[in-house]
Amino acid sequence: MSKLQGIFTPILVPFDERGQINEPELRRFVSWLIDHGVHGLYPNGSSGEFTRFNPAERRRITQIVVEENRGRLPIIAGAAEANVKETLAACEFAAGLGVRAVAIVAPFYYKLTPESVYAYFAEIARNSPIDLTLYNIPMFASPIDVPTIRRLADEFPRVIGIKDSTGDLAFMMRLISQIRPSRPDFTFLTGWEAVLVPMLMIGCDGGTHASSNVVPEVTRRIYDLFRAGNLDAAMKWQYRLLELFDAMLYPFEFPVGFKAGAELRGIHFGIGRLPQTDSQRAEHKNLTNILQCILADFDLVNPPASGCAIRSPEASQPSQAIAQPASKNIGPEHVQQLVHEVLDEMKNRGIL
Amino acid sequence: MSKLQGIFTPILVPFDERGQINEPELRRFVSWLIDHGVHGLYPNGSSGEFTRFNPAERRRITQIVVEENRGRLPIIAGAAEANVKETLAACEFAAGLGVRAVAIVAPFYYKLTPESVYAYFAEIARNSPIDLTLYNIPMFASPIDVPTIRRLADEFPRVIGIKDSTGDLAFMMRLISQIRPSRPDFTFLTGWEAVLVPMLMIGCDGGTHASSNVVPEVTRRIYDLFRAGNLDAAMKWQYRLLELFDAMLYPFEFPVGFKAGAELRGIHFGIGRLPQTDSQRAEHKNLTNILQCILADFDLVNPPASGCAIRSPEASQPSQAIAQPASKNIGPEHVQQLVHEVLDEMKNRGIL
Amino acid sequence: MSKLQGIFTPILVPFDERGQINEPELRRFVSWLIDHGVHGLYPNGSSGEFTRFNPAERRRITQIVVEENRGRLPIIAGAAEANVKETLAACEFAAGLGVRAVAIVAPFYYKLTPESVYAYFAEIARNSPIDLTLYNIPMFASPIDVPTIRRLADEFPRVIGIKDSTGDLAFMMRLISQIRPSRPDFTFLTGWEAVLVPMLMIGCDGGTHASSNVVPEVTRRIYDLFRAGNLDAAMKWQYRLLELFDAMLYPFEFPVGFKAGAELRGIHFGIGRLPQTDSQRAEHKNLTNILQCILADFDLVNPPASGCAIRSPEASQPSQAIAQPASKNIGPEHVQQLVHEVLDEMKNRGIL
Amino acid sequence: MSKLQGIFTPILVPFDERGQINEPELRRFVSWLIDHGVHGLYPNGSSGEFTRFNPAERRRITQIVVEENRGRLPIIAGAAEANVKETLAACEFAAGLGVRAVAIVAPFYYKLTPESVYAYFAEIARNSPIDLTLYNIPMFASPIDVPTIRRLADEFPRVIGIKDSTGDLAFMMRLISQIRPSRPDFTFLTGWEAVLVPMLMIGCDGGTHASSNVVPEVTRRIYDLFRAGNLDAAMKWQYRLLELFDAMLYPFEFPVGFKAGAELRGIHFGIGRLPQTDSQRAEHKNLTNILQCILADFDLVNPPASGCAIRSPEASQPSQAIAQPASKNIGPEHVQQLVHEVLDEMKNRGIL
Hints:
4 copies of one chain form a homotetramer.
Chain A: E1 6-10, H1 23-35, E2 40-42, H2 55-69, E3 76-78, H3 84-97, E4 101-105, H4 114-127, E5 132-136, H5 146-155, E6 159-164, H6 169-179, E7 187-190, H7 196-201, E8 206-208, H8 216-227, H9 231-249, H10 256-264, H11 278-297, H12 335-348
Helix pairs in contact in A: 1-2, 2-3, 3-4, 4-5, 5-6, 8-9, 9-10, 9-11, 10-11
């Protein structure tokens, strides 16, 4: 089977008004992503809020994505369940659907030692009917360290790749230098689009990026420009992507900001499974306005009716990049709202 | 309803040879715990490996514990599920069984802001048919900070307590000083038995302790000695409990060491859901020998056939406490094994 | 020589209008502290901002304190310098002045391994002409772990104690249980007054507390009540001390809040060596008002002219303690200032 | 004055047999570095162990470097002292010597808030007679965040650059995108040579690299290849540098491994100021053998007499890079030593 490469979208999941998976919209979203140039699909990743669904829902999501894909793109399906036995059942289910590979996040909640992380993946790799990629995201789950990844790559042909979400270039270089010589088929994917171009430059095969739910044509363009050897242009888009990424990641709970961005592209996500307070809802509206201004600069959406703060002119090369931080886009018209929120927050905290 | 107090056991779950819940042994364990003096039972806590079961199994565990308890002790049932809706369904199930309260851990995997942690618990508290205790364990889940706990305590009578596993005395004092004046019914439980006596001294109502699965008579004795005003004796036992706790917690994955301890008391836990490597299994055997020596000192089990290293004589008061660290109990006879393990580990890491 | 015990004050250093050590005021402060009941003095600790002085100034501070003390109390002098050779010279200087012992913080800036921390202290202990206490403060310096402290205590009679500022009860218990049996002369001091009473209960000999610069009579009273076996009263004061401690520690840079508190007691600290912005100066004033209200409740100072927010009545025992968090004392009259500061901060951050 | 760019060497300091600065060797080293192609010199950086010297020694080091340089290269002199006043005096001293700029690390030991970090640098920038670069190294000192760096760059023309040692590409991109448009003269230097090429690609002007003490020709070559547009070759050398960097950084205390590497190049560093245990000395020897093997592969030194383990052949492009981890170079001949060390360590820890 061919090696995994390119940009895989960890698909965000739309909900209906009852808080259930909105199947028609999810199908529409899958085709929209394919039409906008992503290289592959990745249901039940962190962006897909896999921990907020029950096992049956996770299977249903994979099934919908597979059906709607109709064989057009390779699919990596998140298959982590509560324990090895149920994870293996999810692997079998995914294999039955014909997906290309599964992705298994390291055990979370309990923080395991490297030896136990190895034992967990070894047990799965030994019994899986389908290729698997390791998923390293130490900010949420037990870390998978370099010796463990190498050990698994050396011992199990079924382990065909790593998705790493640390954004740590040197970590990825250590992996590539230790594993690629003996496993040229092994895939290295980054989950941190803030540094997608540098990751490609050190030899990564691609990435799985939450941002590709929102601007699939941009992540695709960056990848294509890099592969075409046009580094300067790739870096210019990388800087613009970073601005958008920061504005979707930091001010929101994850992955709410990415849903807000994709909503602006016309996908309807409904009300999520994470309860919000009134002050969060008001803040959400303001932050979404900022996203709309950034996306308007990409010529992908119209600017908000209330207008956007003046933004610096674009520079033509990375060394003069001018992407402004999201916070600079808060215009004077938002002061009132901000003060209001601050006072609310003070009340909430018992200060007033 | 009466206020929760005393030592609640976060019940370890026995497995059968197929890796399923061993119901007869779980029932036997419940009664054994009751017979040995615990004040309450707490199924589906962290010690109960709740994340390694599926939703149906978690319900079954609660049901077994409730049935076997036959109304003898108050029960707090862990009821956290993948999202608010399913958590509320688990609360209803628990309420139907007649448990005293549920315990809900803060959302994990994703690390939420305090505002979202508030929103999550508020939504549950608003709709729960049963009293609930907050469960703060920041090493595994989103932290619940002091203002958030206070806010929830102020707004929702259904929120009747906090279980905090940080072991941070000052944190608990801040909670008590801010919440107890207006909510005298609110229960403060510590999950860190290393400092049970100091926690009782600052005003905690009790604790939920993994160690009470292993030495229920000791945690009970500490509690009783403290309530009887016999601080010196309570502290002496506290020092001994710390030695045991350290030996069960740090050298093992959690909660494997506690299962090893309870196994020595005659409960059969079977093979757990966490895969182990051969070197872990060998290490497990050695570490369990150390536990057996410590428990033999408590006169609760016989020493291992291979004997125990000489241990320092006990002192009669805290200021001369002599509990030795677990590592001191490794006798010369273990050198061979240790060197063997080190070499194995070096091989595993690719050094040899 | 007698064992170190009781409350040692890590002396804050007053400055004159030129930013130099204000010697007369420092002398006055030393005698004020002695008159108010502290058991010992500790120049050049973290509260004494030892890193903000040059080596000559640090010696001068020790000299002034020794002179003014006139043999009344035991003195522990901070003696850490840039390297072992200069640290040993500082030890000799301190020995020449007749102080009881020196305190040496673990190397900072570079984070050393336990083996290097051991080597550092061993080299000093081997050559020091004076008894030395180890100073463990992992939030600022390389941590000194339990095996290292034990190793140093076992090998070097010159190492006579540990000052630990983690506030971790279990850590201190591990130290006491491992070291006290073979070194009954070894002193265990806590640097975290938030949990002074619990630390005394587990067997600590005393503490070195920044708060004792501000309320020496309170830290003394807590110590005396505990030693007299009056735990309930000790805990009641502990809760009140926690409120004050939190209000001096968290809202300020360290040790600025403690200087603000001692200033309210009539000691003049001048302008410190840490530059402040205008918004910090405004905030400082508000925070100091809160401190004044807390200290007024202790009947140690008059309340501020602007009055204090109503505070909850005191409860008579720890389990009903009612100390309110500092933030609750911000009355409606401070809203304007707060909003102003928020807007300033927004401007500073480029949001407005 | 021209903008700072290229590779600046944070000079390691040789000691004589009395533990004093070895001036002749330091002079020889300066000229050796210049002869081997570095672009600039940086005395009193972290590699220069500035915290292990007293103020007079730090001045002397700068003076020696300036003298020996004889105007050949631009010099950035570390000038952080115990407080603002003394730091400004060091700035004046450096200015008097004619260095190009000073570098000021953020305050360390105490961890300051962003506002205080701002106030500290603002006070210095307001009064400094010489250009200054900010030095961000959050693993050792208070972090300097993006808004603070921007604020300082916006307000003070004297602040002409940042040296950031985090290795975080996205952090550097945020800085560049926010500051470069209005301050095209501002210099961005990375202190993390593990990712030098990616940092250059995103627009950095150069770096200050401990490794350039050891392989100045390699760091120069990487820089030149990148500037010449030969990215593939630059990345190939980057991978080789990473292997060396990892082998000098992680197994040693910093900067001991870099001194061991430069010693192999013929510079004599003497015994450092950090005491070592016997087991550290033995380990040092083994680790240095590994360094020698790596440097022999660079054709910069001869291999050790005992030979080197077989190393994988080099690949011709990053995507097939084959740099092996240092640990792979431990041959069977080292087993005996390792077992010995393990046993020693166990003894030290009290296990045997």
